[in-house]
Amino acid sequence: MTSAPTLARTRAELDLALRPVPRAVVMTMGALHDGHLSLVREARSRGEQVVVTIFVNPLQFAPAEDLDRYPRDLAGDLERLTGPGLLGAGDVVFAPERSEVYPDGDPVVRVAAGAIGDVYEGAVRPGHLDGVLTVVLKLMHLTRPAFALFGRKDVQQLVAVARMVRDLDVDLTVVPVPTVRDADGLALSSRNAYLTAEQRPVALGLSRALAAGERAAAGGAGPAAVRALTREVLVAAGVDPDYVALVDPETFGDVPEDTAPQTGSVAVLAVAGRVGDTRLIDNTDVRWA
Questions:
Q1: What is the pLDDT of residue 154?
Q2: CA dihedral 102, 134, 172, 272 (to 10 degrees)
Q3: Active site residue: 33, 36, 128, 141, which one?
């Protein structure tokens, strides 16, 4: 039988559980699925101790968003995290209450995402990435890892975190982990649980649209055509698009529409849209042949 990891609910309990070895951290908001577990498995291969944080961060939710609705199941998450290749004795799950993370209430000083936080997810959800970076930096300080694992599905978040680590000289390595998908192609997300049986086929429009954009770029289509085709497939599937982004993978700046990308150049094609009341995001790399 695999021994269970230590559950720490306070900063003091976390400090006692951390060992003086290289560690890897996976930061989550719980409601864990196989995408999260892929991060944990990668963390297992990187650090002698793995820390998984479970905290629904209020700073990254706007007043009208689904903070109260966001699924919470700590007992189920702990069960999913324990097993071969996942967490065991010597590892830690840090699941603090809001008052542990923000003991003085909402923080006065916060991390600003800058230009990366003003576009796309940042434009649709103002302040979202500032809230993400603020809690990520706090959790980095609290867990003191050598490696921090982040999924590629939230690509704008990944770019923002990597830039924060670089700009603020945070002494760790950010490790991107590929998106995990269901057999039908839908990117795994905790919000997929909100989809009805009738809505799930519509949601597949996101991955189909990305595949169409990939093929268009590989066939030599320019940035404007890639964006237009991707949006067309989204709309035809019944997805209400928030945005279609074709951006530089390091800066998240737009790929200019009036330029011909060089052969072999790579951009991130990212989409967001609503299926009923559920907002979903997805992305892929596109490469010009």
A1: 96
A2: 130
A3: 36
Contact by Cβ (8 Å): 95, 255:
no
Tens of pLDDT, residue by residue over 29-72, are 998 999 999 999 999 999 999 999 999 999 998 777 778 777 78
DSSP string, 240-258: EEEEEEEE-TTT-PBPPTT
What is the reported pTM?
Answer: 0.93
pLDDT at 55: 97
SS3 70: coil
For residue 33, give the nearest of 186, 174, 176, 161 by alpha carbon. Answer: 186
**Tokens, residue 93:** 């799950």
Count the Cβ atoms, other than its own, within 10 Å of residue 35: 21
pLDDT at 70: 79
How far is residue 133 from each of residues 59, 85, 114, 119, 120, measured CA to CA in Å? 10, 28, 11, 15, 16
Give the pLDDT confidence score for residue 83 in this predicted structure.
Answer: 83
pLDDT on residue 2: 59
Single-letter code of the amino acid located at 250: E
What does each C-alpha distance from 139 to 105, 167, 209, 230, 239 come to in angstroms? 16, 17, 35, 36, 35
- Euclidean distance between CA atoms 205 and 194, whole angstroms: 16
Say if residues 71 and 22 touch (Cβ distance below 8 Å): no
Alpha carbon distance 32, 55 (integer Å): 12
- In the residue annotation, 36 being an active-site residue is answered as yes
Those residues of the chain that have pLDDT short of 70 are 1-2
Q: How far apart are CA 181 and CA 196, in angstroms?
A: 18
